[in-house]
């Protein structure tokens, strides 16, 4: 590959100022959790879709592979280059415009580099809700959210990024532009290319813009915190919440005692409710299109029924927005408290909700039995069956040595239990390069064959984010 | 192709009684609207997924093409054989079992041949709602619904068949079984094969089973009927309904005066409200998880705001379930009233909701100007932007002659107007063979190229429902 000739082509397309090759490029080349650092031939920052298409055509001509990147906040090491120094990082961050907001159609059309929080705020300023919500929302982009089919905390009501998207604009691996930016809720004119690109982690093409669904802003959002006697009780409470709150149920998070003890230890000012006396706590959010009063009455009905049924031991309903946001803050502080406590292994698994109690009981028992001193940080989005079933290294001792010795064994124990319960080893983070070697053990060979056939059909040169999702060695 | 050897193989797989070659096979070979009649080499009725896989392998070995079929109620002539006499109709009707119902996971797993209404009733008997609802529900199958991504009347709240499906089991074009029957709401482990098969109309493989979402049964369903002064007023009313009813808004249908005049003429016992004095009427459905009283209060708030805003001229709220079902019956009788009135052209188009008033005004004007005596039956699912913008032949005169002379011109006028307004020429019915020649004029060439590449990748022999969705001539 003739690097200097490719660089010249790229400079001609986007301007020399937007082809970065010198200085500290670690914001683009290093995974933010520092699990991988690569070297880019160049970081290219196109200004519009035509430039993206021309960049892809130039890379195709020179046989250079392309790593599309949004906010570089991914959790599966899918958006940083490898160490070859021959890959081009295609950063979509300059393409951050809101192209259109259509109130009567309840849609907003934005470019891929738009920061999620900006999208949320633009929607809210126009009187609408854009419900996708996750920890990285201040720096992740909607293009990255779609590329990885991001989930987050509102999936129980609104679905993943996939379900919030009506249309996309894509630059194909051949450098052609597909304008699939439809705002239609019904369109049965051929294969669902939209959903094929969503979640493909940049391995089939580059999503450059999207038309997303909006919802009316709820009149009130109320948050409750409940102590529950068991995981089964938490599942029972979820069933009651569906019945009592209907579509008002917009969040349902579960946290075990140890995860809350870490928040209490490292962020004592947050005053975690109930955690000392109960094995599990649950956070429930009720979004109401009528009024706060109505939301409160609904919650009272739910909690009364739940206390009666024995699936709630104690509960509070936030009295103010400030208190509600503190409760959410406790839930969202678990990863930070884990980091304060030391090294840990993050999981992102899902199983059918009905099987979660058995999954947790069996997997807890297996890990405790086989891994000396292990500490389990079980928490996550119970409303959609997604647990961040994390493992903290033992108190004291050498955490690095522990991980070296046990990490593979722990992952195997967790993944095998997930497989037994018909779950997924990556619920919302994707495969990236982190789980690409694990996938063949946990995914049907027939499905993998079809994925490979599609990859070859749409990217015959294999230049789009190679080695991610699918291994390059067959 | 050695027909007798293939037939022998098929008899060995499913039993001679389930390989139909003699007698009246028109229930399988004739489109129910009688727009096409083919001849099958055989109609094969497998009992389970393994038999489906073996049938596909046998057809592949002999190079015979396969037409998958559910209830044969499709509207795009996609599920009957051609006239060659060499195609095998693969009827899924015997595979109609409910495999599992998981209350805590809110899912039901059924075989492809399960009749939609049986699925609805099984869900309801267990205390849940399966919301997919459409005119053919008494005879269409869930496999057909998924193959065509069926829509219907509840899409404004629950989405299409695609959005109601979590996992599918598929027999590939190679006769392999892919078990993708997951009940997970989050699973980011590779390309979205599920949504690729959904809506592919049997051209990529055969859907043999599916895991579908369930919802809590609403406590009450209330229906209102409103007269509105214009299509723009109907769109404004929809916006208010989203705000006032939130997720309670489960149906929003619009009907023009002429469509209601036909119901009044041919089914006078239905006593259509308001139609004489207003250009449009709207049917609104509110599903409430609390109570009928609460639903009524919600409706009163909506109608008060709408009368105030001038987007409703008059309105009634059904006082009983019987009255509500009569109102729905009026809406659903429009196609029958059209048939009574004589020949007509059916459309199934969508445009962004914000553009519907301009689309209807412009297209009405163009048709009235260019097609002498034309009568326009505008009605449909305004809540999701899908209109059945049908055209009735003129009163008196020779309807057949009129169609011969004007049908192509009418379709071109409507489709070109749809394209101008960034809409779809097939919102919920699919492409089948009926619109396969039209598609290249209204779909992006880049998208069509990707579709062809995927078809070739997954069905290299081209045996799955050839000539549907994609033309066999390139």
UniProtKB/TrEMBL annotation, chains A, B:
Q: Which domain of life is it from?
A: Bacteria
The FAD-binding PCMH-type domain covers 36-217
The record's Pfam families line, in alphabetical order, gives: FAD-oxidase_C, FAD_binding_4
Q: What PROSITE patterns does the annotation carry?
A: FAD_PCMH
List UniProt keywords, sorted A-Z.
FAD, Flavoprotein
Q: Which family does it belong to?
A: Belongs to the FAD-binding oxidoreductase/transferase type 4 family.
Protein's recorded name: FAD/FMN-containing dehydrogenase
């Amino acid at each position: 590959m003739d690097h200097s000739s490719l660089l010249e082509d790229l400079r001609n397309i986007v301007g020399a100022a937007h082809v970065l090759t010198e200085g500290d490029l670690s914001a683009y080349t290093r995974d933010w959790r520092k699990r991988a650092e690569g070297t880019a031939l160049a970081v290219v920052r196109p200004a519009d879709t035509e430039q993206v298409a021309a960049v892809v055509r130039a890379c195709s001509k020179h046989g250079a592979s392309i790593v599309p990147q949004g906010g570089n906040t991914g959790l599966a090491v899918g958006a940083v280059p490898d160490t070859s120094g021959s890959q081009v990082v295609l950063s979509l961050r300059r393409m951050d415009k809101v192209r259109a907001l259509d109130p009567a159609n309840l849609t907003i059309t934005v470019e891929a580099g738009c920061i999620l929080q900006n999208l949320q705020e633009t929607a809210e300023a126009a009187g609408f809700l854009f419900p996708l919500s996750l920890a990285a929302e201040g720096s992740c982009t909607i293009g990255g959210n779609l590329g990885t089919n991001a989930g987050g905390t509102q999936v129980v009501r609104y679905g993943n990024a996939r379900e919030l998207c009506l249309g996309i604009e894509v630059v194909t691996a051949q450098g052609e532009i597909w304008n699939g930016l439809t705002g239609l809720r019904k369109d049965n004119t051929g294969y669902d290319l939209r959903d094929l690109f969503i979640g493909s982690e940049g391995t089939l093409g580059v999503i450059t813009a999207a038309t997303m669904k909006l919802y009316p802003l709820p009149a009130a959002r109320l948050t409750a915190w409940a102590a529950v006697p068991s995981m089964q009780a938490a599942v029972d409470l979820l069933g009651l919440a569906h019945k009592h709150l209907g579509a008002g149920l917009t969040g349902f998070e579960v946290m075990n005692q140890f995860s809350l003890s870490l928040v209490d230890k490292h962020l004592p000012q947050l005053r975690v409710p109930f955690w000392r006396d109960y094995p599990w706590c649950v956070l429930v959010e009720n979004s109401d299109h009528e009024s706060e009063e109505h939301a409160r009455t609904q919650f009272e009905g739910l909690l009364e029924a739940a206390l009666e049924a024995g699936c709630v031991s104690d509960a509070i309903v936030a009295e103010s927005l400030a208190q509600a946001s503190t409760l959410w803050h406790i839930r969202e502080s678990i990863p930070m408290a884990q980091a304060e406590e030391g090294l840990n292994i993050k999981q992102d698994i899902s199983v059918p909700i009905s099987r979660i109690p058995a999954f947790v009981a069996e997997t807890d028992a297996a890990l405790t039995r086989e891994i000396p001193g292990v500490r389990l940080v079980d928490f996550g989005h119970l409303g959609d069956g997604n647990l961040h079933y994390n493992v903290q290294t033992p108190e004291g001792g050498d955490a690095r040595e522990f991980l070296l010795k046990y990490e593979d064994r722990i992952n195997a124990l967790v993944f095998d239990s997930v497989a037994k319960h018909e779950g997924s080893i990556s619920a919302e983070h994707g495969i990236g390069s982190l789980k690409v070697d694990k996938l063949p053990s946990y995914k049907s060979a027939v499905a993998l064959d079809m994925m490979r056939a599609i990859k070859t059909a749409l990217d015959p040169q294999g230049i789009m984010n190679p080695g991610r999702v699918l291994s390059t060695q067959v």
